[in-house]
C-alpha cells in the first residue's frame, strides 16, 4: 500500500518517498480504537432551492461617509490578542504532544521489531527547482520539513508524532537511501537526501541535482564527480508482480465483501458499497458511551438512490427520538420528519 500511495503522490507532483522502518503495534495492526473519531459529525446533504435575488429599485446609491476616527488602539489591541493566541496555541500543542506521549501503550518485547512501511512527503525540497548539475552548498544544509502519510488509514501527521519509532531507509523511483544518522526520535532526522553524510545512496544513475558536494577553497568540483560505474553498489532485479489493474466492477465495489467497518474510540464507522444494501444504505456511524461498544448513544444512517428521497436517519438511544431527512423531489415536498418513541 505504501508503494501504491507513493506512486499516486508522485504522479500528483509531490516529492514522496516510501519509508521502511519500525512503528508501534497499533499502527502496524491498524488499531484505531484509541483514536478519537477524526472526522466531523456527518450532516445530511440537503439541496436547497435557488431563490431569485431581489432587485433593487435604483442602481444609484449614495456613498457612505468616511470613518475619520483613529483605530490605532483597536489595532494594537488586536495585534496583542493575536500574539497571545499564538503563544497559547504553541503551549496547547506542546501539552497535547505530552498527553499523547503519556497515553501510549507500554513497551513490549516486540517494540523495535515491528517492521512497517509508510510514505514521507518533503514540502520544500530544494532539488525540485534546481536544474544545475552540481551544487555548491555549505556544510549545514537547510532543514527540510516532512510529513508522514499512513497508507492503511490515509491520515497525515507531522514528524513529531509518536506512532513511528525508527527509520531505516527511504526510496523513490530514482534511488534507495539508507539512513546513517544517529537520533533519539524520528523528529530529529534531517531530510536533506542530497547530503551523503546522512543518507547513503545505493543505486547509480540518479538525477544530478539529488547529490550535494561540499566544496572547499582548495578543491575542484570536477574531482568530486565520480563516474556511474564507481557508484554501483547493488544490482536490482525486475519486478516480479503483475501490473495493477482495477476493473470497473472492482472500482464500483470499493470495499472487500462490499463493506468496511472501522472502530474508533467509542465510535463504530461502517461503510457499504453502492447498491449493495437493499435499503440503499451507504454509511452508518454509531457512538457509544463505553469502550467495549456495548452501550450505544446515537446512530446516523445515510442512504443514496432511494425512490422516497430519504438521505439520512438520526436515532438517539437515550431519548428514543428519530429524525429523518429527505432530498428535494418528493411529491409531497417533505423535507424532514421527527418522531419520538418515548413512553409516558
UniProtKB/TrEMBL annotation:
<dbReference type="GO" id="GO:0031514">
    <property type="term" value="C:motile cilium"/>
</dbReference>
<feature type="domain" description="CEP76/DRC7 peptidase-like">
    <location>
        <begin position="116"/>
        <end position="201"/>
    </location>
</feature>
<dbReference type="Pfam" id="PF24656">
    <property type="entry name" value="CEPT76_peptidase"/>
</dbReference>
<feature type="domain" description="Dynein regulatory complex subunit 7 MORN">
    <location>
        <begin position="256"/>
        <end position="336"/>
    </location>
</feature>
<dbReference type="InterPro" id="IPR056290">
    <property type="entry name" value="CEPT76/DRC7_peptidase-like_dom"/>
</dbReference>
<feature type="signal peptide">
    <location>
        <begin position="1"/>
        <end position="25"/>
    </location>
</feature>
<dbReference type="InterPro" id="IPR056291">
    <property type="entry name" value="MORN_DRC7"/>
</dbReference>
<dbReference type="GO" id="GO:0030317">
    <property type="term" value="P:flagellated sperm motility"/>
</dbReference>
<keyword id="KW-0175">Coiled coil</keyword>
<feature type="coiled-coil region">
    <location>
        <begin position="69"/>
        <end position="105"/>
    </location>
</feature>
<dbReference type="InterPro" id="IPR033551">
    <property type="entry name" value="DRC7/lobo"/>
</dbReference>
<dbReference type="Pfam" id="PF24667">
    <property type="entry name" value="MORN_DRC7"/>
</dbReference>
<keyword id="KW-0732">Signal</keyword>
<protein>
    <submittedName>
        <fullName>Uncharacterized protein</fullName>
    </submittedName>
</protein>
Amino acid at each position: 500500500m505504501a508503494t501504491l500511495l507513493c506512486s499516486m503522490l508522485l504522479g500528483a507532483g509531490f516529492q514522496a518517498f516510501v519509508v521502511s522502518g519500525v512503528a508501534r503495534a497499533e499502527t502496524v495492526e491498524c488499531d484505531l480504537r484509541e483514536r478519537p473519531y477524526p472526522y466531523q459529525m456527518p450532516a445530511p446533504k440537503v439541496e436547497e432551492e435557488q431563490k431569485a435575488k431581489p432587485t433593487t429599485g435604483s442602481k444609484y446609491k449614495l456613498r457612505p461617509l468616511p470613518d475619520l476616527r483613529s483605530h490605532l488602539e483597536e489595532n494594537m489591541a488586536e495585534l496583542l490578542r493575536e500574539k497571545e493566541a499564538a503563544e497559547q496555541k504553541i503551549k496547547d500543542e506542546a501539552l497535547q504532544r505530552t498527553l499523547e506521549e503519556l497515553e501510549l501503550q507500554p513497551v513490549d518485547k516486540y517494540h523495535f521489531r515491528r517492521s512497517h512501511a509508510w510514505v514521507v512527503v518533503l514540502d520544500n525540497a530544494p532539488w525540485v527547482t534546481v536544474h544545475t548539475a552540481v551544487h555548491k552548498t555549505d556544510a549545514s544544509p537547510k532543514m527540510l520539513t516532512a510529513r508522514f502519510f499512513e497508507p492503511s488509514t490515509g491520515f497525515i501527521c507531522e514528524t513529531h508524532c509518536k506512532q513511528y519509532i525508527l527509520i531505516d531507509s527511504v526510496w523513490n523511483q530514482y534511488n534507495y537511501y539508507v539512513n546513517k544518522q544517529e537520533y533519539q526520535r524520528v523528529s530529529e532526522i534531517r531530510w536533506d537526501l542530497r547530503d551523503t553524510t546522512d543518507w547513503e545512496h545505493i543505486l547509480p544513475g540518479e538525477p544530478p541535482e539529488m547529490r550535494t558536494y561540499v566544496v572547499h577553497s582548495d578543491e575542484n568540483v570536477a574531482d568530486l564527480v565520480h563516474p556511474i560505474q564507481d557508484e554501483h553498489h547493488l544490482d536490482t532485479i525486475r519486478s516480479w508482480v503483475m501490473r495493477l489493474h482495477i476493473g470497473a466492477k472492482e472500482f464500483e465495489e470499493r470495499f472487500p465483501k462490499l463493506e468496511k467497518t472501522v472502530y474508533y474510540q467509542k465510535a463504530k464507522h461502517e461503510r457499504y458499497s453502492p447498491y449493495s444494501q437493499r435499503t440503499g444504505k451507504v454509511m452508518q456511524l454509531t457512538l457509544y458511551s463505553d469502550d467495549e461498544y456495548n452501550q450505544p448513544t446515537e446512530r446516523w444512517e445515510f442512504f443514496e438512490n432511494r425512490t422516497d428521497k430519504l438521505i439520512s436517519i438520526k436515532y438517539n438511544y437515550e431519548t428514543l427520538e428519530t429524525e429523518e431527512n429527505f432530498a428535494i423531489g418528493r411529491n409531497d415536498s417533505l423535507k424532514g420528519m421527527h418522531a419520538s418513541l418515548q413512553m409516558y
